[in-house]
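Subject: design request, 208 residues
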């Protein structure tokens, strides 16, 4: 018998067996082939978390300025003014020091010759601070202080009989002596020297 006939008979026999099977044993068998697929054979849908709603970062809050009392604001303003004033005084001292070697000429106010008050006028004016012309007038234009509170850049006023006759600018200490820059008198040059008298008092442009 040819092979294709044997194959056909075997297929027919298997269909017959299925048809003769008790219906009670297969009462719940689905009628179509798609229903024969068991639930376990179908891949379960993958659960996905709901997308989070898009959010924007909150804008940075402006930095609040510290609240200052009226007194604190006043102190702060005074400190700024004092700092600026000290810078001006330091510049005046540098200007005066730069004039060392220039000759003393009575009545001269620079830029290459000076008398004592002319040197002060020139130096402080270059630093943005105003002084009147003579040593006596200059002594009345600044704040008088004690010797113990002197700083470099303060002024030194010499007196005789209650009259101010000479002025220099304080330039620190050397060998235990206070030093100043001044234009002493005719025949000398602007120079740095020790305060030679005890009849003097200091004055300052620094704020109180």
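Subject: RE: design request

Done. Sequence follows.
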């Amino acid at each position: 018998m040819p092979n294709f006939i044997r194959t056909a008979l075997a297929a027919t026999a298997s269909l017959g067996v299925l048809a003769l099977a008790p219906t009670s044993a297969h009462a719940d068998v689905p009628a179509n082939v798609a229903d024969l697929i068991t639930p376990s054979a179908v891949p379960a849908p993958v659960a996905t978390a709901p997308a989070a709603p898009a959010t924007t970062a909150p804008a940075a809050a402006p930095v609040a300025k510290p609240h200052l009392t009226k007194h604190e604001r006043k102190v702060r303003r005074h400190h700024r003014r004092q700092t600026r004033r000290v810078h001006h005084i330091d510049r005046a001292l540098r200007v005066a020091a730069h004039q060392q070697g220039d000759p003393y000429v009575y009545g001269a106010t620079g830029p290459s010759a000076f008398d004592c008050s002319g040197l002060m006028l020139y130096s402080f004016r270059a630093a943005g601070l105003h002084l009147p012309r003579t040593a006596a007038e200059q002594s009345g234009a600044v704040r008088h202080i004690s010797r113990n509170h002197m700083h470099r850049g303060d002024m030194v006023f010499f007196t005789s009989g209650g009259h101010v006759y000479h002025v220099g600018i304080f330039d620190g200490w050397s060998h235990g002596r206070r030093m100043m820059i001044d234009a002493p008198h005719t025949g000398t040059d602007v120079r740095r020297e020790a305060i030679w008298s005890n009849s003097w008092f200091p004055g300052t442009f620094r704020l109180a």
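The domain at 70-203 is CATH 3.90.1720.10 (endopeptidase fold (from Nostoc punctiforme)).
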